[in-house]
């Protein structure tokens, strides 16, 4: 394998912004999107804070340029918005000019809509506009909505490996380019808040009732968020042919499995250690070359200890700056890998490292601590981004300055 | 993608609405169903999964993990270099269970296990845990392309590292809610039929099936090897049959084959005349006079049903025999069966090709 894979465009929407620039601004100003759940009724809305995109479905339809109630789920709508930005940012006007793929990801797809209409849907005597949302539970549905709107045809795929999904979408995209199957691939993910996920994570008792405190001794779990993000991967030939200036190169990636527990990380971070070390090795650099790690950092008792131990073990005396940016956006689940890929790219491109909000107390089990303050005007050459998920899934991506 | 390495199907594990879990048999007994929903014929799970672990597992997880274990045993695979799974709807049973609890209990008194086991990668994670496998592990969940995306991923990995042995599988389960929704839309039949009469029925809608089919893939021709896997292709929303034919020809020429080299065509028709039309036309144009087989009257239709089609192709190549129950026509008898093409479609919009050859 000799081909390189470059990233030429980004698109993103979360609780802290509707595009990449708004995200950079929010990150630089330590603006968190975590707050009260307002856009759907839940018994948890007063007690469990979330990172909610403060736009109604109608407003999202208007931004996405589609008709309300016509079958576009919130997951599809934000994916459309992020995909459109990603294509524009990569200066791709004619989608047919090269072999292009779309690989998205989601954990629950259109569950937000489905949970409201399930009873009616299964009643064969009932008909109405709600039937536009009949086939939205599967993960691939939103991908096809995006594909059909923009005209993706050469390759469509959807990954679903819980909270590492979008990172695995990026890996598949990179492989399809390296094997000469595609020239360009738009990769990412989309997930929105739903009763299903809110109650699911709540039933596991891993939701912080405050704004989350990753890597803090007093951490109390995660805040859920919603968002979609896509990055545009392109081959060397595309870069040369269209005389493009890539944002970064995707130099390494690795996927490994903890093989420990369905929903918990192994206590010593075996899977995390493997995925990080293999991603770095693939890039052909030493671990000490990594300038910054955008951690999975969910703020749960289990993840943060496991991830920090793996970082300590891998980097030893050369532990790079690290932080979790989830206190800004909340955990956007399947989309987290692409949301944080965009942040990693912003970091490299703007010579800036984003701090880990809400860190106060050192974890006693470890000797390292996350970055507390924004760092600007620092040379950032290599950024490692971690995304871990249920099923023991561990994926690391390494982005490098071009 | 041109392959310089040859890839073999080294093991099978298939749990389906037919008794397919025993690799020593090949559709010796046929199960019939009369309510348009075809459930799996189940093996004794405790032969494959520890009883303590078994108790906590959902039905789909039991089926999926058992199929994976049968496959790994068949190929004498102890440690896969990658575990890749595929599912259109994932753990839809646990997802439905958790959702109904939320709706019926007003977001109170929920069962965390339903949620924990609701992710699409629950089975790939469980296989990793069971086999203590820290290697590459992913799950594709794109409707009628899930299985094909997984095969593509495996082919790329084995191209880069021919020593890799990959455990790959697809699974989907029947679901009462989804069946009702699809009946309303006409995708599934409302009037009950006998599954074996699927292609003689009214030509409107299909029947719901399920299954978990696993494959061990590797570049070594093991004594047990069933078939060579030459290639896979997905075609999204083709305009017409000629586009499908063009893609068939591309796949064949990538493997230095012509249409005349194909001995058997396995057609993933679902019994809906309108939805089957494009692939039927393409296959008739390309492969007139060849032996055509079908399989969805045996396993029903579901997102990853192409995996049953690939299983059927592998078994035919290994046994050099064609079960009568799968034949759609009576072509001239074959002295040997060398090349098999599987063409599947899902809801008439997602088409896929899988090309197999005698090992």
Notes on the structure:
- The complex is a heterodimer of chains A (402) and B (359).
- Chain A folds into two domains: 5-241, Peroxisomal Thiolase, Chain A, domain 1 (3-Layer(aba) Sandwich), CATH 3.40.47.10; 251-400, Thiolase/Chalcone synthase (Peroxisomal Thiolase, Chain A, domain 1, 3-Layer(aba) Sandwich).
- Chain A has helices at 20-28, 57-64, 74-89, 111-121, 140-150, 165-178, 195-203, 236-241, 270-283, 301-315, 326-329, 336-350, and strands at 5-14, 34-35, 50-51, 100-105, 155-159, 184-191, 224-225, 227-235, 248-257, 292-294, 321-323, 352-353, 375-376, 382-389, 393-400.
- The model of chain A has no long low-confidence stretch (mean pLDDT 97).
- Chain A has 402 residues and is an alpha/beta fold.
- Chain A starts with a strand and ends with a strand.
- The longest helix of chain A has 16 residues, at 74-89.
- Chain A is globular.
- In chain A, the strands form three sheets. Chain A has a ten-stranded mixed sheet with strand order 5-4-6-8-1-9-15-14-10-11, sandwiched between helices.
- In chain B, strand 9 and strand 10 form a beta hairpin.
- Helices cover 33% and strands 19% of the residues of chain B.
- The relative contact order of chain B is 0.18.
- Chain B is globular.
- Chain B has two domains: 8-218, Thiolase/Chalcone synthase (Peroxisomal Thiolase, Chain A, domain 1, 3-Layer(aba) Sandwich); 227-358, Thiolase/Chalcone synthase (Peroxisomal Thiolase, Chain A, domain 1, 3-Layer(aba) Sandwich), CATH 3.40.47.
- A ten-stranded mixed sheet of chain B has the order 3-2-4-5-1-6-10-9-7-8, sandwiched between helices.
- With 359 residues, chain B is of the alpha/beta class.
- The two termini of chain B are 20 Å apart.
- At the A-B interface, helix 4, helix 5, strand 5, helix 6 and helix 7 of A face helix 3, helix 4, helix 5, strand 3 and helix 6 of B.
